[in-house]
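Appendix B. Chain record.
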Amino acid sequence: MKLFTFGSKDIGIDLGTANILVTLKGKGIVLKEPSVVAIDRKTGAIMATGNEAKDMLGRTPEQIKAVRPLKDGVIADFTATQLMLKNIIQKVGKRYNVGRPRVVVGVPSGITEVEERAVEESVIQAGAKEVYLIEEPMAAAIGASLDVGEPSGNIIVDIGGGTTEVAVISLGGVVVSHSLRVAGDELDQDIVSYIKHELNLAIGETTAEQIKKRIGCAMPLMTETPMEIRGRDLADGLPRNMKITSTQIEEAIKESVNKIVEIVKLTLEKTPPELASDIMEKGIVLAGGGALIQNLDKLLSIETGMPVYIAEEPLDCVVRGTGKTLEDLERLKTVLINSRKRK
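Structure tokens predicted for this chain:
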């Protein structure tokens, strides 16, 4: 019994730009929150994290600042990231009676050594016993149930909040990968500026995200879908309601979507021929929130001439991958960036 309680103290974290997800060995995903922290400017103490803090974005009084500590998949605000990780590990620790856990964290593939160390330090200071880092596309591939250990090629496209990660994986390693700082957040920005310039209406990021989720598309939908939105009229500064259509949103995000398509094609061009033929056969797997943009799979399939599949529960692939890695740490040691043991 003692062994089991020790084993259940392992935590997997997807440290995303938009969301932070935590999985606990034997329990599955136990926490899913926006990567936002509200901090008291005077004391530096945390007021709130996650949903509570996200509701404060753009609405805080002077003494409180609500920040997204990760930008484009990397740590932009080290102190806030540390506080957030500490808060989250403690939250999970209290709720599930976790002592000093072993932690596997999913990080972007373009991460520098300095940033790697920053993540490790944060997690260690939050009370972890050992920290392992795994590249997000690798974690996403494991989470999407691709057999990463096989000597055949798989390609994963993980479109998160801050980055789009494309990786060709074989024999437990990343053979070719590209990281693009165009992803969900960029699409939200595209929608904000399109509505500002074309419709003379100011909307916030939260509204833009809702629009993207509801009517965002990479190619025209079978039937054009309208949506009622509310914003501030830039002419008179008063609130105004307006209808917007899926065709307009397709136009708004077109440029960024094309960048994502191009990075996938570039990765395929750089893939060794033996692996390319495996990929032709198996197709491309889409993970991350961006996988849910309507018709993106169709567009990618047309542009690459390959079948494209959306992973099951694409938002949870990375965190599920960190969890599966923990369950099989010995076999999957090779996929970790830092197999260094911490005492």
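Further analysis of this model is presented in Appendix C.
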